[in-house]
Amino acid sequence: xxxxxxxxxxxxxxxxxxxxxxxxxxxxxxxxxxxxxxVDVPCLSAQLDDSVLNIVKDHIFKHGTVASxxxxxxxxxxxxxxxxIVRWCKVDDDFTAQDYRLQFRKxxxxxxxxxxxxxxxxxIVLHIDPNVDYQFRVCARGDGRQEWSxxxxxxxxxxxxxxxxxTAGFEGYSLSSRRNIALRNDAESSGVLYSSAPTYFCGQTxxxxxxxxxxxxxxxxxxxxxxxxxxxxxLQRDQAVCISTNGAVFVNGKEMTNQLPAVTSGSTVTFDIxxxxxxxxxxxxxxxxxxxxxxxxxxxxEVVFDWLLDQSCGSLYFGCSFFYPGxxxxxx
Length: 332
Prior knowledge:
Elements: H1 2-6, H2 9-24, H3 50-61, E1 72-80, E2 83-90, E3 97-106, E4 113-118, E5 122-126, E6 134-142, E7 155-157, E8 173-175, E9 181-184, E10 193-194, E11 205-212, E12 221-225, E13 240-243, E14 248-251, E15 254-259, E16 268-278, E17 290-298, E18 301-309, E19 317-321, E20 328-331
Antiparallel strand pairs: 1-2, 2-5, 3-4, 3-6, 6-7, 8-9, 9-20, 10-19, 11-16, 11-20, 12-13, 12-19, 13-14, 14-15, 16-17, 17-18
Family: Belongs to the cytokine receptor-like factor 3 family.
Main location: cytoplasm
InterPro entries: FN3_dom, FN3_sf, Ig-like_fold
């Protein structure tokens, strides 16, 4: 083809005809088809003369080892609002991993960037734009070694879920550029900072991570509610469930007997909510006709209870309130 292109005008037709004639006789099934996915071809093999093979092996073993595939691979990608949970696993039982290294990039980018290095086999990658493809790859470092293993075959994932965002412009709080981090910065104002929309749906996990702490107050609250209600200075009210920074749990404004550990810097508080029943409850004294089962977890402890609402809610708002500055909360 190159010769045909470089040939003169008079010779070009003849050379192209000769080239296409040869191409038509090539056995295309000897090559990997273009439709084959990269993940389905972890390695390529070649048949070499024994003398050549020995020379190549000697050179390779002077610098390292030969493996048929990388020792770790991406196992699962789970979408989250504004994030993706990446899970990976070892596929080489003889490989003892000391650390793992996870990288990601937008599919439109040529550059991978480190997002996690450590001993865990799961990590949530945040700041993910919805409906945008991202590639992930992972490698490992053997026990007592400095060099990293080959990268796993890149896996592509995306999130269709709308990111959780705090309401912008609320007095007393400043937000990050993505509006998923709220900082309490003014002790003069009060009130509940709500989400910009009811973006929490039953069956999902809602996570709050406390980045920094301020002076605690018993009226502080982090939780979810059926609707925004202005005029309250806390989520410790009807049609809401929350945890205070001292660990107290409130359901429709009433404090539960069970209590979680106090919230500290780095604490993660999660809410898992599932619909239990629809229709009128048998106990009228409890009020409400729509029941949700709520699990609140914090610092390796959890409480589980039924939350009764006046009416069915397809989605819920989340919110927080702090009475002293310094509290910073990330939601995802």
